[in-house]
Amino acid sequence: MICPTLNGWTMKDILEKLDDRRAQARLGGGQVRIDAQHARGKLTARERIELLMDHGSFEEFDMFVQHRSTDFGMEKTKIPGDGVVTGWGTVNGRTVFVFAKDFTVFGGSLSETHAQKINKIQDMALKMRAPIIGLFDAGGARIQEGVAALGGYGEVFRRNVIASGVIPQISVILGPCAGGDVYSPAMTDFIFMVRDRSYMFVTGPDVVKTVTNETVTAEELGGAKVHTSKSSVADGAWDNDVEALLQVRRLIDFLPANNTDGAPHWPSFDTADRVDLSLDTLVPENPNKPYDMKELIQKTVDEGDFFEIQESFAKNILTGFGRMEGRTVGIVANQPMVLAGVLDSDASRKAARFVRFCDAFEIPIVTFVDVPGFLPGTAQEYGGLIKHGAKLLFAYGEASVPLITVITRKAFGGAYDVMASKHLGGDINFAWPTAQIAVMGAKGAVEIIFRSDIGDSDAIAAKTKDYEERFLSPFVAAERGYIDEVIMPHSTRRRIARGLAMLATKKPERPWKKHDNIPL
Ligand code: HXC
Asked: Is the beta carbon of 109 within 6 A of some atom in ligand 1?
């Protein structure tokens, strides 16, 4: 029987028609362009989403949205979805929102309607207080749309700003990311790239050649290597789409859904009171000999699982996420293996941004300290070391999350204050018996205080020894209560776990302000 309300179509026809329309939309820019995408070693937008989300959990929005442009003959080329796939799904059961640029449709370029699709997802993510992930592979503003595309970018940017500090925002760059496309990622919390296949720049090699006469390739200008090791625009890079997306899933597992829910609690097979006797010999007897601070981090956190952020930039400081008793902690640690763990402008900026992320999202911070001071020199001073160092001071000083600090060896000068000291608001400050908390190292101190004895090597040696015995220990600080407890290295995990459990109810009082004025 034919139903009159279905215009002569049977229900079967109607369902088949929907299926056809969906299948056509899922093809994006068509099989030829999909093949070209694969030939470049890249996945399509939908394949990427499938890998990112739990199997079968993705629900797409706005599959049939098309652009409304009529300039340059655009009315003849309308492709359902308009170059971006949007929707939501789950990662290990937790809701996340996603938009993925579809390079097979107008090079993934952003039109007015394309921007509106992203805006809808941004608004939903904020309303549901769930993370949003953007997958980028696009040629910037839809050139045929001109100012309408610029307006669209502005709408995306404004939403990035409003959501900042409320929900985690993550950007993954899996192909070109140029022009207007770079600024939305730059305002999100984390940017990840794929090596040799993705690049980010405001203006491409051709414009660079015209304006500055420099000849550079896209990779040299804005590849993953540049942005993870030089510019620090990106927080990490992996070899291909699959690895990148799986690592983003791993990161999501560390993050809270928003700034009030707290980090997820995952079952842990590691006991809180596990001791590690090998830590008792981690710090070498020779104070100038380096050791790997990553070993301490891995031996402290649950199952040794440490997700490092900005691994290839300012390697003299380590930042990343781990878990204690199944709950996320942010780790900041000087790395004696690189530049003796000194604080310079890059290390200060890197750690400050990480501390602020943790504080915004109520993630407790554990700080491991072995720092000989700030890096001297004109390069640093001219580069604004004062302002950059102040960023880290400021970030720790404003942090209201639980702060636990462990000084393993050197904590000299201003850097002692900066690294989550008691004075800045550290809640529990431990020192290993090998700690040296002082204004500076013995040699430098003696040469200043006893300048008149400099010619007398015996006198200087004796005074250096005196200084070392008196000041290069944790006890002068402990006598003043600047250190709460001098602990056995092997008990570090247990001490931190107990401290975090006690600090879980921390509620500091701060005066009202609109916002602070961090030294940018
Ligand atoms: C419309 C675009 C496009 C764009 C690419 N395409 N970029 N269409 N607007 N911005 C289309 C191409 O015409 C082509 O269509 C298809 O996408 C694939 O592009 P190819 O050039 O063939 O691919 P490839 O060789 O890989 O080069 C990729 C690319 C290049 C490097 C991204 O396409 C490129 O340089 N695009 C222009 C980048 C740009 O200048 N964008 C505007 C930035 S200005 P067909 O039909 O041939 O397959 C901007 C200002 C905003 O963004 C500022 C806001 C703050």
From this structure: yes
- 139 CB near ligand 1 (under 6 Å): yes
Distance 246 CA to ligand 1 centre (A): 28
CA distance 259 to 362: 6
419 CB contacts (<8 Å, ≥6 apart)? Answer: 332, 334, 367, 369, 371, 396, 405, 407, 411
Distances (CA, A) of 189 to 14, 22, 48, 89: 44, 33, 20, 20
Mean residue pLDDT of the chain comes to: 95
- Ligand 1 pocket member 340 (CB < 6 A): no
CA distance 34 to 43: 8
Residue in the structure block whose two tokens are 């950059």: 388
- pLDDT score of 365 more than 60: yes
> Strands, E, within 239-278: which ranges?
none
pTM listed for this prediction: 0.95
Quick one: fold of 277-435+483-505? Answer: 2-enoyl-CoA Hydratase; Chain A, domain 1 (3.90.226)
Domain ranges for the chain, please list them. 43-254, 277-435+483-505
Q: Which residues contact 479 (CB under 8 A, 6 or more apart)?
A: none
Choosing from 34, 69, 72, 109 the residue with most ligand 1 atoms within 8 A of its CB, the one to mutate for a pocket test is 109
Active site residues: 179-180, 414-415
Q: In this model, does residue 6 exceed pLDDT 80?
A: no
Specify the CATH class of 43-254 in words: alpha beta
- pLDDT digits over 193-244, tens only? 999 999 999 988 999 999 999 999 999 999 999 999 999 999 999 999 999 9
